[in-house]
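Hello forum,

I keep getting stuck at the same step: I have a sequence, I want structure tokens, and every attempt I make locally crashes halfway through. Rather than fight my setup again tonight, could one of you with a working pipeline run this one for me? It's a single chain of 379 residues.
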Amino acid sequence: MTEARELRGKEIATASNQIERVDRRNYQVKSQSGHGFYTVAKHDGLWGCSCPDHIYREVKCKHIWAVEFSLKLREAVQPPVTIIEPIDIHACLYCQSPQIVRDGVRHNNHGNIQKFRCKACGRYFTINLGFERMKHSPQGITAAMQLYFSGESLRNTAKSLQLIGVQVSHKTVYLWIKKYVSLMERYLAQIKPQVSDTWRADEMYLKIKGNPKYLYALLDDETRFWIAKEVAGDKFSHEAPEYASELFRQGKEVVGKKPLTLITDGLHAYELAYRREFYAHQKPVTKHVEHLTWRGEKGNEKMESFNGNTVRSREKTMRSLKREDTPILTGMQIFHNHVRPHMALGGKTPAELAGIETKGENKWLTLIQNASKHRMFRP
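Reply #2:
Ran it on my machine without issues. Output:
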């Protein structure tokens, strides 16, 4: 009997439109008798199903088999991972020739920087890629970014840098953040994350220059990848759907697709924006879920947790953002997606689960140098 359930599960998994994914722990499997759907959900590491076969016989039903086979099929067709490697100077940055030789050093107040000359094209370059003409070392600058986005204020970051011999003001730290966040943002925009088909949206109150504002954020359910953001003046005015629509438009541009499921709270602006940007009369049709309630999870709690742990904790340290187009929010997004490992994701970053892996002990350095190299050679 178990083999029959397993075989039927394979047939369901390979058929079209039989399984609907709500999130990574909740699935809807179409009843084979044609009477609606059964809910297959994972709780405490075990799959459960709402069908009578599982409830009354306490067996692994064909719907659970179908979900497991579907997940295996999905893993088998995962797209290749994008690897962002640390820059290793073994070839000319301009012509890629391996015929490079050391040719003196450049001196500054914080040490010597090795210079190289390419025998093939005759051009000079240094290993200080991304930090040319900077008075301070790459280690000091990236340490500042790590301290700040880990929760320190600008002034505390400047004080902490004094312990490693970097004497700067808090204004200089902000200028570093502004410069390198912009550089990394342009580079990372060229790489599309491989997110799931379930996205979550929510808004949170914050202050910008003392004025009340709202930050709309779009998050992938499975990888926790922060897809898009939008700063809005209000969430109840007639302009609120425009802000939400812009958030969803950004999400489609960043990822290159629409979600199959959109989870939000009951804000009416989301429903209007969903109809503008995601709804379609032909399949696949994006499903909008409001006030979601599943076993073990109520409402939009994943998004609320993201708002509190990622954004609110950082905003409290700053007391207030100074500009709507501040680089701080983009820096928080880069830090959340590519730098900070998450315990809920098994110690990985959201970008790693989304197919973008940044190598090296100093991920800030890897990102900045690759962004600088990309800028040098872009058309």
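The chain has a mean pLDDT of 85. If your local run keeps crashing, start a new thread with the error log.
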